[in-house]
């Protein structure tokens, strides 16, 4: 595995209407690495994902992917480079079939996707003709992930995929994400469910009020006074 980072954020800052959402965010990610991004509600986790995927652009700082600055590129250009994401609320086309959803994503990115392999990965083999609207919440999350996989990502941004799922579903998703990372795909996983995150990685970044207050292992984070205060003793 290369030791060059696939992703590097340097002094990234973002505000909305004068409200500073992220300040001086710095971190790196190596190929095939899974990084957990945690923090209280409103601490800026999804904003980090939005800046990397191109939904928003930072006011300051740089985002380097695979050696090149990407912070001014459109989301579409970033998908073509190999960055994609799943959403807190799945964004499948519910009137389309499972297969059509994956085909559209692959077409959008120009990637020659192995659709049967993706269906197998996401546990929807044999359901390719089913309308997305007929899927369970868990299956829609898996389809959302399948749509991201269809674009051939090198970096996958996973935003609170565990919310609302039962323990068996969580174990299934954790196993799938680990299999994906083992193929060399890097991952940032935003999550409130620490037990779920612990199955995926020990390396986490903790955000509080838009600043990184901790970087290290999940175990050490749980004993860090600033992290404990951020979660239990003060405002995000
Ligand atoms: N488009 C936007 N316009 C204005 N404010 C925004 C926008 N997006 C995010 N914010 C604000 O930025 C702050 C950080 O939000 P963000 O969604 O990144 O936090 P989060 O850590 O992902 O929260 P949660 O865990 O609740 O999903 C919040 O105060 C939010 O209201």
Walk me through what this model shows.
The protein is an alpha/beta fold and 236 residues long. It folds into 2 domains: 1-82 and 154-168 and 184-236, Rossmann fold (3-Layer(aba) Sandwich); 89-152, no CATH class. It has 9 helices and 10 strands. The strands form 2 sheets. Strands 6-7-8-3-9-10 form a 6-stranded mixed β-sheet, with helices on both faces. It has a 4-stranded antiparallel β-sheet with strand order 2-1-4-5, covered by helices on one side. A hairpin with a 2-residue loop joins strand 1 and strand 2 (19-29). The longest helix has 16 residues, at 167-182. The chain is globular and about 50 Å long. The N and C termini lie far apart (36 Å). The protein binds adenosine-5'-triphosphate (ATP). The site of adenosine-5'-triphosphate has 10 residues, from helix 1.
Brief digest:
With 236 residues, the chain is an alpha/beta fold. It is built from nine helices and ten strands.
Q: How many helix segments?
A: 9
- Architecture (CATH level 2) name of the largest domain: 3-Layer(aba) Sandwich
Write out the strand line-up for the largest beta sheet, numbering strands in chain order. 6-7-8-3-9-10
Using the coordinates shown, work out and report the CATH topology of the largest domain. Answer: Rossmann fold
- The top-level CATH class of the largest domain is Alpha Beta
Radius of gyration from the alpha-carbon trace, in angstroms:
17 Å
Question: How many strands appear in the DSSP assignment?
Answer: 10
| Bound ligands, named by name, code or SMILES | adenosine-5'-triphosphate
* Series of secondary-structure elements, N-terminal to C-terminal: EEEHEEHEHHHEHEHEEHH
**Class per helix and strand makeup:** alpha/beta
Overall helicity: 25-40%
Q: What is the average per-residue confidence, as pLDDT, rounded to a whole number?
A: 92
**CATH homology-level superfamily of the largest domain:** P-loop containing nucleotide triphosphate hydrolases
Separation of the first and last Cα atoms: 36 Å
Shape: globular
């Amino acid at each position: 595995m290369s030791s060059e980072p696939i992703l590097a954020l340097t002094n990234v800052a973002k505000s909305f209407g004068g409200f500073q959402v992220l300040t001086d965010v710095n971190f790196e990610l190596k190929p095939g690495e899974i990084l957990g991004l945690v923090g209280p509600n409103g601490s800026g986790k999804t904003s980090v994902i939005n800046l990397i995927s191109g939904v928003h652009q930072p006011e300051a700082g740089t985002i380097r992917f695979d050696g090149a600055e990407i912070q001014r590129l459109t989301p579409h250009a970033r998908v073509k480079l190999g960055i994609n994401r799943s959403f807190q609320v799945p964004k499948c086309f519910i009137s389309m079939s499972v297969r059509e959803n994956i085909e559209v994503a692959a077409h959008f990115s120009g990637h020659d996707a192995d659709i049967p392999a993706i269906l197998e990965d996401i546990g929807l083999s044999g359901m390719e003709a089913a309308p997305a609207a007929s899927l369970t919440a868990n299956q829609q999350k898996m389809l959302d992930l399948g749509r991201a996989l269809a674009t051939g990502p090198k970096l996958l941004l996973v935003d609170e995929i565990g919310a609302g799922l039962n323990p068996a579903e969580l174990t299934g998703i954790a196993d799938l994400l680990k299999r994906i990372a083992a193929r060399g795909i890097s991952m940032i996983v935003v999550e409130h469910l620490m037990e779920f995150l612990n199955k995926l990685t020990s390396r986490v970044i903790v955000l509080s009020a838009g600043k990184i207050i901790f970087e290290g292992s999940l175990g050490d984070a749980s004993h860090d006074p600033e992290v404990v205060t951020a979660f239990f003793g003060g405002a995000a």
